[in-house]
Amino acid sequence: MTAEDARAELRQQIFSLLAEVAGGVLDSQTIESDTEFPETGMSSIEYLALIEKIETKLDVFIDLEENQDLTTVDKFCDLLVDQVPSA
């Protein structure tokens, strides 16, 4: 699997989790991977739920103090692509 393939797979997994926490309102059909979450109306509770789901599903830890700029799917991908071995 190429790095580009791994990134695309990771992006789809994050979009899937995003759709779960946003009740299907936010997904790859309704927003772009570089759309800022605050622009979508995502609540802070939904944001924290997304992080929890990503950590659980991908078996990673996201330090929010060190990563305060995780505001798009692409930014999550940038952070996680090297941490997720199966992506």
From TrEMBL:
<dbReference type="Pfam" id="PF00550">
    <property type="entry name" value="PP-binding"/>
</dbReference>
<dbReference type="InterPro" id="IPR036736">
    <property type="entry name" value="ACP-like_sf"/>
</dbReference>
<protein>
    <submittedName>
        <fullName>Phosphopantetheine binding protein</fullName>
    </submittedName>
</protein>
<dbReference type="InterPro" id="IPR009081">
    <property type="entry name" value="PP-bd_ACP"/>
</dbReference>
<feature type="domain" description="Carrier">
    <location>
        <begin position="8"/>
        <end position="84"/>
    </location>
</feature>
